[in-house]
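Tutorial, part two.
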Amino acid sequence: MEYLDFELPIKELEDQLDKCVVIGQESDVDVTNTCKQIEKKLAETKKNIYKNLTAWQRVQLSRHPSRPYTMDYIKALCGDTFLELFGDRGFKDDKAMVGGLGKIDGQSFMIIGQQKGYNTKTRQYRNFGMANPEGYRKALRLMKMAEKFGVPVITLIDTPGAYPGLEAEERGQGEAIARNIFEMFRLKVPIITIIVGEGASGGALGIGVGDRVFMLENTWYSVISPESCSSILWRSWEYKEQAAEALKLTPNDMKKQKLIDDIIPEPLGGAHYDRETTFKNVQKVISGTFNELKKLSTEDLIMQRMDKYSKMGEFKE
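Running the prediction step on this input gives:
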């Protein structure tokens, strides 16, 4: 297990507990009471740390290297039923954007999401979860296919942003994202969106228009990352913690501002501490939400979706 800087007190206690158990196994000394005391203190420390996380600490947890990624959720939710589909039929297949058909609780879904890598090689292969225009065009192709066959859509968001390279801009990055947003508003099938990690900028919005939008407890959703915001405002990344607080990017902030519909709870410590529980929580939300949305007519579905987004934000004339 890798530990973040604010988790070091937990690491120290877990190391103490391991040493205590080893002493008990290798000698005749009864360490039962000592182990229980350490376990009690460990439980209290975890509760105090994870129940009082700052915005920046949630950002750190959303990037934890052991956290499950989009393909982990797909494999857990769909099992062997998932069939990945490739290519945008225009340029090439973007490995940062994955998608395909799969069944959850017997219902077929078109599942689309950004995929990050687990090590240096796979991170380069997946372009660190930053999709090019062809990735968004692939996503749109799959959504249109789902619409044609009446299959509901699930989007899983986990990206530090769309790829900002020159070649991406030359191939129409902005247009691709804008086209996706425009088309998703009019899609004739239910769309369920879940932020499972990072939700940054237009890269997230490119597959982020949903009838219901959910965030896992330790994720973030914002127009810009805290580091980039800090570098613009203060010409330095040193103020990223202040930027994270000011951006109001946590799930609680998003729900308070009525930008998302609900928060999916994670196990104490984050999704990576208990993946199975996290997957079950996500599956429960997907099934329950789809059962609500399938009752709506196509006209009501689109009307409610447009109405939902038109009410977001405040303005003065």
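The first strand starts at residue 83 and ends at 84. In part three we will examine how such features are distributed along the chain.
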